[in-house]
Amino acid sequence: MEIKSTNAAEPTTFIWKEAEVTTGIFKKPTGTPIFLSTNKVVGDEISDRIHHGGYYKACYLFSAEEYPFWKKQYPDLDWTWGMFGENLTVTNYNPHQVFLGDVYRVGEALVQISQYREPCYKLGYKFGDQKVIQQFIDRGNGGTYLSILEEGEVNVKDPFILVNRLEKSITVAALFELVYAEIKDPDLLKIASLSNALSPKKREWFASFLK
Length: 211
Description:
Helices cover 23% and strands 26% of the residues.
């Protein structure tokens, strides 16, 4: 994997169900390095700190190879990197080959593959159609959040170098599928429920299906 674009957002406000909402989903390429801190990308807008940012969602990564598919679905949008609200657009990202808990060195930072992305109405608003949420789920490649184990600056063309992989884990693709599957594999549920790469709340959620 390699960084294609570093992206950040200014706060954007819109009206949703008669209420004013501020979001940081409207990210644009920075054209400069960005600094990954423990709880956020420095200089990036995090409006909803309940659902975004923090240790397990410090930085969001999405695949550049997914863009052609989505451009065909929504050709009239103003397409730039960061369209999915990602801080890092990366090349050669394969969710079937990246595992929950993987640790990578990228630029000056040490990062860990952590939480899956759950799309919400803000993505639908940005795309001009709420049906994109289900399409995103059905597509099965939602990117991944990163935890920042060592803070540092990252930039375009920085490669992701694998430092550590757990003996027993679950791929990012399988984890995303597990979240939305009607019938959930108990073996995969157990792995997810015991993974320290996920937040305690998410671990408890997976464990609840084993009772």
